[in-house]
Design a protein that fits this description.
131 residues, mainly beta, Jelly Rolls, two-stranded antiparallel ribbon, 66% strand
């Protein structure tokens, strides 16, 4: 059984405060760091026509005749796609396995991707149909 356990991603932000004293013309600068926590679920069920990955470890496409998923290299470095429908996969930049502009997954296919040096590399797969 798969549980949707969220990941906690810390996003640091800098805040600079300048405090001045008008009578002595002395200013004090204090820099603090504030951390914002963003919760990203471990998986996403995709049932829409178009979806862009958003940091999930697993994306399951189902409950729709066909969908297009774009792999976002700024939010994912590794992702698994499970297809329970027809899925068209597109990289946001580069190619898939340095060769393909897109990948077509048929029902039941499962593919693991890793973003490496500007391309999405297939680490493991079953049931691929390449286009």
């Amino acid at each position: 059984m798969l549980y949707n356990m969220p990941q906690i991603i810390n996003i640091p932000k800098r805040k600079t405060i300048i405090k001045g004293d008008v009578t002595t013309h002395v200013t004090t600068q204090v820099t603090t760091q504030v951390t914002t926590q963003v919760y990203v679920p471990d998986y996403k069920i995709v049932s829409e026509l178009h979806y862009t990955s958003n940091g999930e470890k697993l994306i399951i496409a189902k409950n729709i005749n066909e969908t297009t998923i774009t792999l976002d290299s700024t939010k994912n470095s590794k992702v698994i796609i499970k297809s329970l429908t027809n899925v068209r996969l597109l990289p946001d930049i580069g190619k898939i396995d340095e060769e393909w502009d897109e990948l077509q997954l048929d029902w039941g296919a499962c593919v693991q991707f890793q973003f490496v040096e500007g391309n999405w590399i297939i680490l493991s797969s079953d049931g691929l149909k390449m286009s």
